[in-house]
Amino acid sequence: IGILGRINQHARLLLTVLIVGYVVVITVAAIRRFQTYDMGFDLALIQQVLWNTLHGRPFETYAYDFTTNLLGTDSFFVLLVLLPFYAIFPNPAALLAGETLIVGTSAIPVYLLARDHLKQRWAALAVAAAYLAYLPVMWGNLYEVRERVMAMAWVLWLLLCIERRWYWRMLIPTILALSCRLDSTIGVALVGCYALLLRWRGDASSQQAHEDISDRDRHALPRRFGLTLIVAAAAWYLFVTKIMIPSFTNRSGYLFLEHYGYLGNSPTEVIINVVIHPFNTLRILFTPQKLWFLFAMFLPFAFLSLLNWRLLLVMIPLYGLNLISPRRIQWDVYHHYQGLIVPLMVLAAIYGLAMLVRRQILGPHTLGWGITAVLVGMLISHAVFGDPLPKMLTHWHPTPDEIAGNTLAKRVPDDAAVATGNLVAPHLAPRRQLFLVPGGAFYYVEEPFAKAQYALVDMHKADERSATEAAIAKGGWCQIDKQADYLLIKKQPGAHGERCATP
Prior knowledge:
By secondary structure, the protein is mainly alpha-helical. Helix content is 59%, strand content 6%. It has a six-stranded mixed sheet, sandwiched between helices. Helix 9 runs parallel beside helix 11 (184-200), helix 10 packs parallel to helix 14 (223-248) and helix 11 runs antiparallel to helix 18. The termini are far apart.
């Protein structure tokens, strides 16, 4: 028996080792990134919300001017999945580990989908490894704690349920996916459209999928799969935008729609302007930087994802949603915004390779050549676009700035309202009131110093320094301590930046 035969024999064990290895390595890397002050305010915000929830104040936050509840911004119910991790170990490390566990175990549906279509466990194991090494997966997982990354995992389970005709089981990942912010409704609805496309005309690769599928179901997916997903997504969208968010805030509209404000003031206006101005839309979509992003997305799977038209069709709106955004972080492989696209890319690549194998494009060794192309594409993408692990897993010694930040963070009373900078925020103990410096009317409170009792800021950062100096100039703040670039000040009537008076 050859090496591939041995891999087939021990595929489940090897898959377990792969997942455990991923969870351990990425968790360590994420914690290291946190320790080196490379994670921002959103991680502190999520910790604050979960801490308040555990103390009987569900989703409470004072980080915004327009709401005191995170549900006044979006549907963040998926955070409840992380609540048990945080209850056991109330530390950002628990949240990072919990998210990584969710992402790591999503290699299971990838493995099962690949095994069903490629018929070889060694090939399925290689595809699962490629998925975990995919830069949008790794970088997204390492970018603080992000709901879209968890949505990626649930959508993969959802696709497995569709492929295997598991209707009732499908409802669990559907609910979990919809709990991951409002834009997940678009992803779930598009998966529903994909299910209807399978109903409309049986997909050749789907027809040969799992041995437990009956002959009748091989040729057409029941309509209820697609319709359930589309109706559920539409109903959830209406509930969130018309009932839930308005019940927690008086702010009109959907907060994050403002990213597309240059195209219109509502989803309808945005869509109309995109459609009726096609040349302007094409000019926005296909800049050199965005074409380079698309290359980065398709290269790792050896462009096999281009071979399945159905999945390409449902991916186009998701790609378009990111590409028309003026924010570059939505069209790169280093953040979490590709979470809903990744599952479709993976399944399309599996379909594409399965089609080549059936047609014996490269003879009897087509599968081997295809898997080799995927692994080589993955290695090239890491070399060209950057592997996140070497820097994060090197031996680490705290810098003087990091030691100073940690030292001053411990001097802030746990019950105090604090204004703080982006990167130092996650290092403060969880508390009921936390405000971002310098603040701003779009997301967070506009006047963080007006609401805080203490402030801990990085004076090396220009925006934090200018906001802090302006607050001190107005009076009412005294200095507790300054170490390295970090300044800790306290609100004290009559003070003008001098050392705090001792009682």
